[in-house]
């Protein structure tokens, strides 16, 4: 309601007066049409008003004796905007001290034009796609260098965002990755982009950071969580991960009180790699009996039954579960309300699914910086939809308050 009250309204009489000379409605939006002319005229009138303020007297008016500066004609300037290319006459003064606010010196783009380019870039469009789209929509020719320069300005935002302070406590932190292709030393290689998604005390999702990994391992993950710790993240109740090498060890080093929970969906997915297609449905159903058990003892019993049945064919599956058992069993210490939000990394998987739609259009990224630019802008769009707490958050939070009373903020 408040925004509607602030919105500028134009009297119908004024609009009718302006449209008297416009006999064909198609002339409104045509090249060189009424809307573009009106845009140019309004800009020129505003610039003239700025010049009057700068000089201290109106055009053709009498200047004071103290004022030595005068108007000095006009210069032609072409601007790129959402109406296309608009040509205007820029007023000049004799001592070149006039600094217009509406259209600053050396500026050739109307406000909002860069934002349109960034919006297209955030949706995964390549530089060439953006060039073609801008030409088709606005009739404006832009170069690949122009698009690159506009998006380059985002890198400063990315650095500030990546180094911003974090909250002291995130009850749940999810960690996952997606693979992108990056040009490196004249070769195109697959690189893993790791994402950490936190859930704050209000149940709202927040991307804590992103990192392109060279060598996944404990040393790499230790540097990631050291960074998060230095930025203010001092505690988390549960870290939900998908078995990335060295990740549980790094978390337990910096956050010894945090319980590391492996994602059951990833565990099942990794288990089914060893299974022939005709057995997959049955094996998946038997694995569910393990992670859906009510207690740890029952889960161990179900694992033994699974091993008896499937070890003759797929012995590697029970071996996989036993080797990761210490990071499977934390699940059974929690009531149903918390299990629903930690047994899977779906919260971050849905983020990755949205990001893959964007990165898929970029068959190859020319640099690491290009990856960060695209993902950051895409995340900005995705985060706009995070207006509600995650599912089952209120009962889960109540359980956290009981289980972690000494660490739970008052």
TrEMBL record:
One annotated GO molecular function: DNA binding
Any one Gene Ontology biological process term?
A: DNA transposition
Signal peptide annotation: none
Its keywords, alphabetically, are: DNA recombination, DNA-binding, Transposable element, Transposition
Q: Which PANTHER family does the record match to this protein?
A: MUTATOR FAMILY TRANSPOSASE, TRANSPOSASE FOR INSERTION SEQUENCE ELEMENT IS1081
Protein role = Required for the transposition of the insertion element.
Instruction: Identify its protein family.
Output: Belongs to the transposase mutator family.
Q: What is this protein called?
A: Mutator family transposase
Question: From which lineage does this chain's organism come?
Answer: Bacteria, Bacillati, Chloroflexota, Ktedonobacteria, Ktedonobacterales
